Amino acid sequence: MTRPPTAAQRRVIDAADPVTGRLKGTESQLAALVKRGLAFRHPRPPHDHFLTPAGHRIREAPPEAVAAEPAIRSPRTADVFAARIGSDEEADSGPGRVREVHSAWQGLLELRRMTNRDGATDRPCDWERAHLVQAAALALEAAGHRPAGREAAGYRVRATPQPEAVAVHAPDTALLRACAATLDKAGWQVGEHTEPRTRDRYLLASPRRT
Fold this sequence. Notes:
It is built from seven helices and seven strands; from the N terminus they run H-E-H-E-E-H-H-H-H-E-E-H-E-E. With 210 residues, it is an alpha+beta fold. Strand 2 and strand 3 (49-51) form a beta hairpin.
């Protein structure tokens, strides 16, 4: 259990940008939100502050429900969110997960705008190139594709020996090609390949640079 934000902190949270979660407030207010895991400070100039998923949940919840809301500690830019790559231990999605995915995707688009030299949001940024599996999985999950789970068939994103490339596997051709279309729209270069031993089809995806 965590203490609810102060009235001043709640006003800052409520006034956050509804899409990106960008915050405005005094340095002490923003630092307090960061300390509580409700906001993070962008590592590059102008070092703006943004809501974490926990901060988004507080903004969307009625004030009386906030006292029971656990915070996420020690956020570090996009690392506060973990996209589902398709593994046995992952739980089913629910309304809260859908909101978190939407917030994370909008935050990633804002990160693209702030860090790509031309401000482009239609191609991956440096963070995505350093976190290939997470970035590709977020693009897929944000588009509504379901990751594989303990009792569910869906996409799986895996690292590969190739630089700047991930493999995407799916249980059927239709989902595989839908994933390819999603990644292409999200700024990835995608090719369909065949695994020599099993003859299974899979995608090889790399972030586009231009």
